[in-house]
Amino acid sequence: MKRIVTIILAVSFLSGCVEMGTKQDAFPSMYGPQKPVAILVVPAINESTAADAGDLLNVTVSQPFTNMGYYVMPMPIVADIFRNEGIIEGTQIKGLPAELFKKNFGADAVMFMTIESWDKNYAVLAGNVTVGIEYVLLSTTSNEILWSYEQTVVVDTSGGSGNIFADIIATAISTGMTDYASVARQVHAQAVTAMPFGKYHPRNGADGLDKSVVLAAKESAIAED
Amino acid sequence: MKIRIIAIATALVVLSGCASQVTEAGYYWGNYANTLYVYAKEPSDETLAKHVEELNDIIVESNERELKVPPGIYAELGYIEAKTGDDAAALAHYEAEMSLYPESRIFLERLTADQK
Questions:
Q1: Predicted TM-score (pTM) of this structure
Q2: Interface ipTM
Q3: Among B38, B70, B79, whose Cβ lies nearest the Cβ of A66?
């Protein structure tokens, strides 16, 4: 069922009839006093069948969000700290009061990532990978959701699709080492287009009217929590 | 055919040539994403050394171009140094991170206390 919704989303996105909203209307808290500077990304929650998808996400997430103008707590260090505490994925943290992360890490917000799908699928199309990731950014002072997004990317791995970006990914996958990290980066890159810019970006506070938020992507992320 | 060639060429540029790119926020990342990923996937002295080399290179290159060193680079370097027992170098790098990005202070001071 979820897959069907995903495909419908993808199709309607391609055909251009998706309802878009501005960043400020979609995420008003990101334009007020609760706007975070320091973000702690906790280890991804993996609900997919791809065992190493969580690690891929963790290792690729800092850069895109840092480039949006935030201070993302250094992931390699954070991952070590959580590992030492016996925490390997975000589910173990989800119930904890978010203010703990203010006290211990100085984080203004905590970001949870859930991998909902990371499937190779040869039935629907010739060959593709469907990757769906849900992001939820929680304030550590109010526990309020500041930003949420569900990003789904269907990557064609059959090659030669005529879509230059899909071909780049396909090429990356066939080169081995970079393989699925490129897919993870692609998902992050699309998700952050709906993220308001942060303190260290030159357009901080000046992007409220950017109409780059797919409203359904915001709603579906919130609905599941 | 033509499109395929362009796509491959673009992919190569994206994968290899981003070394000279500076992001909108003004950060130079060099080959960071790749060396970190390789190290995370296959941790060894060799992959770690490569990543450390990249971190140092980002600092040198950022300074040469008069850019701010990206968030986390000094901290990561300091963390690796602390693990190998080079406390003085670690502290110096934590200090550099905190002065560039004050919001890292609580985290790094706690980390320093825990690593002692």
A1: 0.83
A2: 0.84
A3: B70
Task: Please list every residue in chain B whose beta carbon sits closer than 8 Å to the beta carbon of residue A68.
Answer: 25
Q: State whether A71 and B104 contact (CB < 8 Å).
A: yes
Half-sphere exposure of A124 (CA within 13 A, CB side): 15
Q: Measuring CA to CA, how many Å separate A30 from each of A143, A179, A218, B22, B29?
A: 14, 34, 14, 25, 26
pLDDT of A122 above 50: no
User: What average pLDDT does this structure show over A54-75?
Assistant: 93
Contacts of B33 in chain A (CB under 8 A): 60, 63, 181, 185
Per-residue model confidence (pLDDT) at position B36: 94
pLDDT at B29 over 90: yes
User: Distance between CA A178 and CA A110 in Å, rounded?
Assistant: 28
State whether the Cα torsion B69-A23-A118-A11 is positive or negative. Answer: negative
